[in-house]
Each structure stands twice: as C-alpha cells, then as structure tokens.
Write a structure and sequence with these properties.
- By secondary structure, this protein is α/β, with parallel strands linked by helices.
- The protein is built from seven helices and 14 strands.
- It has helices at about 30-45, 50-65, 115-120, 160-175, 185-200, 205-215, 270-275; strands spanning about 25-30, 65-70, 80-85, 95-100, 110, 130, 140-150, 185, 220, 235-240, 245-250, 265, 280-285, 290-300.
- The strands form four sheets. A five-stranded mixed β-sheet has the order 5-4-3-7-6. A five-stranded mixed β-sheet has the order 12-11-10-14-13. Strands 1-2 form a two-stranded parallel ribbon.
- A hairpin with a 5-residue loop joins strand 6 and strand 7.
Length: about 300
C-alpha cells in the first residue's frame, strides 16, 4: 500500500502558486481509488519531470478523495467513461478515460496516469479545475459532459426481481437532491480563491466547501453575469423552509461585513451557500452548529452602480 500522506513527491509541489493548484474534495468508487494508488506507486519509481509532476497531481488527488462503494452518480468522471471537456476555453474535446489503455488503445483514449487524466478523474460535469502541464504552466480545465458506455443488463435471478422492483419504487419516491447550478463572475474568482486559501487553517471544512463551489461553478465575464444570480454585492431575499421566515441580506467580502446592516460575509456558511445561486433555487446549508437548513432564494437585486 502506498502512503499518500507521507509521499516525498506529494511534499514537493511544482513551483506554482498553491491557489492555482487547489484540489477539490471528491468521492470515488473504491476500484478507482485503488487504481489511483497503483498509478502513484508506478510514478514513484519513474524518472524525469513528467513522472514527478504526475505523481504530485495523483498524490494531491488521493489526499482529497474518499473511497466509497456506493458512488453511482452519472455525472461523475471515473475510469471507463467518455468525457467531454475544454481547456482554457478552447474547442470542445472528448475522450475515453481508461486506467489501463492496453497495447492497442482507442485513438481517443485518455490514460488516467497522465496529467490530463489524473485531473479529470473525480470531477463532475460542469466543474472546473486547474490543469498542470509538463512545462509547469497552469491551464483551466472544464468538464462539459460525461457519458457511460452502454452495457447489456445482466438477467436478474428470479428470487430477487420483486426486491429490486421495490427498491426502485422507493428510489422514485425519495429522489436525491443535487446541488443547484451556480454562476460566478470572472473578476471575483481570484479574490474568492484567495479567501478560501486564507480559511484553510482556521476553518478547513468551510474552505473546502468554498473550493467545491468555485470548482463546480460556471465562470462568466462580469458583463455576462445574469442579474438574477447572487454575486458579490447582490441583495438577496430568501426563505428559511424550516421556519417559513424570510430574510434580506447583502453578500459582501469579509472586510465589508456588518451584521447590523445585514451585510453577510461570503466566508460564512450562509454566504458560501448563497454564492452563485439563481432566483428560485432551493439549497441546503449547514450552520456553524452543524444544523442542516433548507433555504429558497426568492429574489436577487444586483449591486448598485458606483457613482
């Protein structure tokens, strides 16, 4: 078993700003997690800059990944899926992500044991992540779609058909609620990433939540920011679905926060939860007391223009 935490390669990151190489916490099927460990082990015996950079990306991915046997999300990039993506806003590309491409891989195969493949695995459709190139440059990778290869369903044993149908019916009655899509302006992205970096020591869980929100956000130019989406300086009316109470707050940076004027910092649990949401969106958030609440955004007013 490879020790990820104490790997000498994971302790020597490339000479690039840590903010640009942030890694988003993810869940992966146990099989993919074990395969990543094998890839890292192979890299640790390699020579050259390419192997060291790949080992750094793999080690960072593993340190931010939790293996689980119940991960079946269709928008999650795992081994064996076809993934569509863009790099630095360029032309759309796609490929088949494979842990072991073999001697005669498909023409569009993307090995997980590559800088591109190691970055892609664990992301979800719509999420962005920094992409490290072999020359040390940092690009911006965006996953635009995930599709699984069609498989012929295996016949079910006769004595399990009734149980399976019952389980499916329960799943229909209790669907899993996914996080709503969010939008963030390009001009505020760097400031928000810096704030997340600053929270890592004091509030690591909240920092990870902000990193996750930034990673899955759709980034747009400031003049393309929809007026009904919560951005920095937006005034938001939302309803607490637990109590039915409505509140009006303005989302601001920490130095502008003033609870008496209902100016809420983006570095608070409610601030992170509101960031990037559109009018009408419902979402869950966890208070500092670990109480889960559900809120609905009723209206959004964009920031007032400065004189």
């Amino acid at each position: 078993m490879v020790s990820v935490t104490h790997s000498p390669l994971s302790a020597a990151p490339p000479r690039t700003p840590r903010r640009e190489l942030r890694h988003i916490p993810v869940n992966l099927p146990s099989a993919d997690y074990r395969a990543l460990l094998e890839h890292l082990q192979a890299c640790e015996g390699g020579q050259g800059t390419g192997s060291k950079l790949l080992a750094y990306v793999l080690a960072s991915k593993l340190m931010n990944t939790r293996p689980a046997d119940d991960v079946h999300d269709t928008d999650l990039v795992v081994g064996g899926v076809r993934v569509s993506f863009t790099i630095d806003g360029g032309a759309p590309r796609s490929g088949l992500l494979l842990h072991h491409p073999g001697d005669e891989p498909p023409a569009d195969a993307i090995p997980v044991a590559s800088l591109l493949g190691a970055t892609l695995i664990g992301l979800r459709a719509g999420r962005r992540a920094p992409l490290l190139f072999e020359d040390g440059r940092i690009g911006r990778l965006c996953v635009t779609g995930v599709s699984r290869l069609p498989r012929r369903p295996a016949p079910l044993p006769v004595n399990t058909r009734k149980i399976t149908m019952s389980t499916t019916a329960q799943a229909v009655k209790s669907p899993t609620k996914k996080n709503p899509r969010i939008v963030i302006s390009e001009e505020s992205l760097a400031h928000l990433e810096g704030l997340a970096d600053g929270m890592l020591r004091r509030h690591p869980a909240l920092a990870d939540r902000l990193y996750e929100e930034l990673g899955r956000a759709r980034i747009v130019a400031a003049d393309k920011m929809p007026p009904n989406v919560v951005g920095m300086g937006s005034t938001v009316v939302f309803r607490d679905e637990n109590t039915g109470q409505e509140k009006t707050v303005t989302l601001v940076y920490p130095e502008e926060a003033d609870i008496a004027r209902m100016r809420v910092s983006v570095t608070t649990p409610i601030g992170v939860a509101l960031l990037g949401l559109a009018q009408g969106a419902s979402f869950y958030w966890d208070t500092r007391e670990n109480e889960r609440r559900m809120l609905t955004v009723l209206s959004v007013a964009p920031p007032e223009a400065e004189d």
